[in-house]
Amino acid sequence: MECSLKDMRWTEFLSLKGIRWHQVMGIIVLALAEVTVGLLAWFIRTYWVALPAITGFVISLCSLLPKPRGNATSARELMERTIKNRVVTATFLALLLIYLVLYCLVPAHIMPAVNEAKKRELKELAKRIVGNASSDADKARRICEWVHACLINIYREYRLDNYVVLLNRPPFVCLRMLGEDYPLWPLASRCGACMEYSLLYMQLFRSSYWLYSY
């Protein structure tokens, strides 16, 4: 039986003749978006966030490719079945939503709001901590003991990156500071490392100093 390459169904699927210009442009845009996400994940060390981006890229890429003739199972058909799977779609959307909340909403809006709210309570908190301390050294010691007792040290804990840290005890997830702009954030997160400990200590000591200055 004679068989030529023209009669094989998969050649039409791989042929550029079956791809339209809008499909080519769509593939280029998706590729650029994927490269951008990859670079962001590399530079800010959020590797886990690249997973939903890669999943969405592969699904979108296969949906742009032309559909082959016949009943043969193709990559496009497999992806169409995957898209129809509610579990996969829900997982992808959940990961995307978690990323937007953790890396966009929290640093841009929640951290500043919490920091401002804690500022109004800082003097009263410092007063309760230092109590009737007899000297600056006594105040420093009491503040240091309180900070170490209040915050969970995340050193050697499992880190998704230097921002999201998983703990084996409450609060179970620690969101670290991304800079030094909101030093009172640890009062809400109740966790941290060297940066959070030192910045919170300085804020409390300054408040206690001005508390007893006349």
Structure write-up:
This protein is mainly α. It has two domains: 80 residues; 104 residues, C8orf32 fold (Roll). The chain has eight helices and five strands. A three-stranded antiparallel sheet has the order 2-3-4, with no helix packed on it. β3 and β4 form a beta hairpin. α2 runs antiparallel to α3, α5 packs parallel to α8 and α6 packs across α8. It starts with 8 loop residues before the first helix and ends with a helix. The N terminus is likely disordered.
Count of DSSP E strands? 5
Stretches where pLDDT is under 50 for at least 5 consecutive residues are 1-16
Strand order of the largest sheet: 2-3-4
Number of helices: 8
Share of residues in strands = 5-15%
Quick one: CATH class of the largest domain?
Answer: Alpha Beta
Radius of gyration: 27 Å
List the helices and strands and how they pair.
Layout: H1 9-14, H2 21-43, H3 50-64, H4 75-84, H5 86-130, H6 136-150, E1 152-153, E2 158-159, E3 164-166, E4 173-175, H7 186-189, E5 191-192, H8 194-211
Parallel strand pairs: 1-5
Antiparallel strand pairs: 2-3, 3-4
Helix pairs in contact: 2-3, 3-4, 3-5, 5-8, 6-8
